[in-house]
Specification:
The longest helix has 21 residues. The chain is built from 14 helices and 12 strands. It has about 350 residues and is α/β, with parallel strands linked by helices. Strands 3-4-5-6-7-10-11-12 form an 8-stranded parallel β-barrel, surrounded by 7 helices. It has a two-stranded antiparallel sheet with strand order 1-2. It has a two-stranded antiparallel ribbon with strand order 8-9. It folds into 2 domains: about 260 residues, TIM Barrel (Alpha-Beta Barrel), CATH 3.20.20; about 80 residues. A hairpin with a 6-residue loop joins strand 8 and strand 9. It is globular and about 65 Å long. Helix 7 crosses helix 8 and helix 11 packs antiparallel against helix 14. The structure holds flavin mononucleotide (FMN). Flavin mononucleotide (FMN) binds next to strand 4.
Length: about 350
């Protein structure tokens, strides 16, 4: 699958953009372990335009994580357009992705992110303007949800009474506005993260003969079998994985093994070494203080430690460690326990 000249190979598996999760160190590990492309967390257009230092730090990319997409969001077309220019000139991403899917109140409640599903004309205006501004240098792509809420999932079809799923209609307009790929998270805004992702509507968008751009399916993929079904049953061009990657960058190897029919030996020791590598990369590429803040979320959620008896104190110690050395010491101390737990499982 290609997005313009970016070759993502057969059945690509992408790391989803996630705030405070997809920092540069994690993205690098995911790429090394088989992610076909990785996304930055979303970057607020307003803050970029106001030159907020903390926001600029989110634009740091490394050549060895490419292809990498930087994602931005905003409510005002002027700001998003200017932010797009800043992103392209500062970070030189392989793709610029526009977020119209974030459901959280501080974003969607103000009309940005998934809030744009209530003002599709504004969404399309932003896409067109951003494409006009930076589309000569970088492909502009879009990530969104099925709709705002359940009643809003259907619209009257132009040819009469038949109702068309909102996202099927919107996807055509997004394509016409110049987006070069579309990611759909199979939930509405009002669902937030509850219930199950509905892939049937994603499949319907893909089957629409008018759609030419790649469709990336997203929602609830936690293993290789589910990724395979997403390709086989819904025909998507790529899948994107979010929450299941927390503390588990090797999920990309697991998924690739199923998709490609390969086998990778992934021992507990190997996984522990991967987490150490992630700690090292996050610290090296950001700094010790913020790198450790980023890695904590992964260590807290990692399935490598799930179900280990009496693990609470170790988990707390991991989350309180303030230096790279201290974290390594803790991980080395628990290595035999992690190994033993994995062997019993
Ligand atoms: C902690 C967290 C942060 C997220 N941040 C973003 C973001 O910055 N941009 C975005 O488009 N989606 C964001 N998402 C949504 C994910 O990219 C993805 O669409 C969603 O989690 C569904 O995929 P999953 O079921 O594989 O997790 C975030 C999700 C989570 C859980």
């Amino acid at each position: 699958m290609n997005i313009r000249n970016i070759q993502l190979g057969p059945r690509p598996v992408l790391l989803a953009p996630m705030e405070d999760v997809t920092d540069i160190g994690f993205r690098l590990l995911c790429r090394r372990l088989g992610a076909s492309m990785v996304y930055s967390e979303f970057v607020a257009a307003d803050a970029l335009v106001r030159s907020v230092n903390k926001t600029f730090q989110k634009l740091k990319v490394s050549d060895d994580e490419r292809p990498v997409a930087i994602q931005t969001y905003g409510r005002f077309p002027d700001a998003v357009e200017d932010a797009a220019e800043i992103i392209v000139e500062t970070a030189h991403p392989d793709i610029l992705d526009l977020n119209f899917g974030c459901p959280v109140k501080r974003v969607a409640g103000k009309g940005a992110g998934a809030g744009m599903l209530q003002t599709p004309e504004l969404m399309l205006d932003i896409i067109q303007r951003v494409v006009r501004r930076v589309g000569d240098r970088v492909p502009v792509t879009v990530k969104t949800r099925l709709g705002w809420d359940v009643p809003g999932l259907y619209i009257d079809a132009p040819d009469g009474g038949k109702r068309t799923p909102f996202i099927v209609d919107l996807a055509e307009h997004i394509q016409d506005a110049g987006a070069e790929a579309l990611t759909i998270h199979g939930r509405t805004r009002s669902q937030m993260y509850t219930g199950q992702a509905d892939w049937t509507l994603i499949g319907e968008v893909k089957r629409n003969p008018r759609m030419k751009i790649p469709i990336i399916g997203n929602g609830d993929i936690t293993n290789g079998e589910q990724a395979k079904r997403a390709f086989d049953d819904f025909g998507v061009d790529a899948v994107m994985v979010g929450r299941a990657t927390f503390g588990r960058p090797w999920i990309f190897r697991e998924i690739r093994d199923v998709l490609d029919g390969t086998t990778t030996d992934m021992s507990a020791d190997w996984k522990l070494d991967i987490l150490k590598e992630q700690i090292h990369e996050s610290i090296e590429r950001i700094d010790e203080y913020r790198g450790i803040l980023h890695i904590r979320r992964h260590l807290a959620a990692s399935p490598l430690f799930k179900g280990i008896p009496n693990f609470r104190d170790t988990r707390i110690a991991m989350l309180q460690a303030e230096t790279e050395e201290h974290l390594y010491d803790i991980l080395e101390q628990i290595r035999p326990i992690v190994r033993e737990h994995a062997e019993q499982a």
